[in-house]
Amino acid sequence: MDTTILGAVAGLAAVGLVVLAVAWRRDRSEQRSRLLALDARVRELEERPANAGGAAAPAGADPAIAAPPPAADLGAPGVPLPPDAGAPARASRESDLLADPQTGLFSEGYFRVALDARISAARRHLRPVAVVILDVVQGLESGRPVPADPKVVAESIAATVRDADTACRMDDGRFALVLEDTPENGAIWTVERVRRRLAEAAPGQTLWAGVACYPAHAFDSDEILSQTEQALRAAREWRQDRIEVAIAP
């Protein structure tokens, strides 16, 4: 009797594990589908050609963010459809979601989607990706540091990174970079070039940077962001310019 009961319990436990595994796979599949759909939308907006009256593209990227006005479609032979009055407003909202209005760099929302896509591509092609978070202040020596002028910082970043890289301004005012096909030493040199340009453009600023790389320090976007944040916290302990690299697990 005891053996029969134990067998039944084991069978029910196995069925429960199978159900949980199927539900987990479904949730992961749905999450991945949403991310892929959003990334496809982002790529579609990037690839649309610019027009003379459109919004300027974010620094560090050639494609325009805002889409051009749609051409008139014909509903019936010789009868054009009425214009879509909401199209300009939608294009403006999409541009606001993708770009930081103050600096012209990409937004944090775009950064998070782009990071997932870049790491997935790097995993497929076996290439490294570096992630950098920058915090720039002025007046540190006086004991009253305040955030640096975001436009000046954005200009130094845009003049340094490549077209393939992604430069963003985060919601909290910091800056983030996704550097394609870039290992640890390449990321350090990129940040150093940004620091030098910034020192020439606006002396008296202090730059702290945290760097983490796929696959050296992490294997997914959440983990690599966590490692980058830890490195930045270590850099901020210094009262001078400092670049800190994540510690490999």
Short description:
The chain is an alpha+beta fold and 249 residues long. It is 47% helix and 16% strand. The protein is built from 6 helices and 8 strands.
Account of the 3D structure:
This protein has 249 residues and is α+β, with helices and mostly antiparallel strands. It has 2 domains: 1-43; 108-245, Reverse transcriptase/Diguanylate cyclase domain (Alpha-Beta Plaits, 2-Layer Sandwich). It is built from 6 helices and 8 strands; from the N terminus they run αββααββαββαβαβ. Strands 3, 4, 5, 6, 7 and 8 form a 6-stranded mixed β-sheet that branches. It has a two-stranded antiparallel sheet with strand order 1-2. A hairpin with a 2-residue loop joins strand 1 (74-76) and strand 2 (79-80). Helix 1 (2-47) packs across helix 3 (108-125) and helix 4 packs across helix 5. The chain is globular, with a radius of gyration of 24 Å. The N and C termini lie far apart (50 Å). The model is unreliable at 49-85 and 87-92 (pLDDT under 50).
Label this structure with key terms.
8 strands, Alpha-Beta Plaits, 2 domains, six-stranded mixed sheet, alpha+beta, single chain, 249 residues
CATH second-level architecture of the largest domain: 2-Layer Sandwich
- The rounded distance between the terminal residues' Cα atoms is 50 Å
Q: What is the H/E string?
A: HEEHHEEHEEHEHE
Number of separate structural domains? 2
CATH topology heading of the largest domain:
Alpha-Beta Plaits
CATH class of the largest domain: Alpha Beta
- Globally, the shape reads globular
* Radius of gyration over C-alpha positions, nearest whole angstrom: 24 Å
Total DSSP helices: 6
State the secondary-structure class: alpha+beta
Strand content: 15-25%
Poorly predicted ranges = 49-85, 87-92
Largest sheet: 6 strands, mixed
What name goes with the CATH superfamily of the largest domain?
Reverse transcriptase/Diguanylate cyclase domain
Mean pLDDT score: 78
Helix residue percentage: 40-55%
Number of extended strands: 8
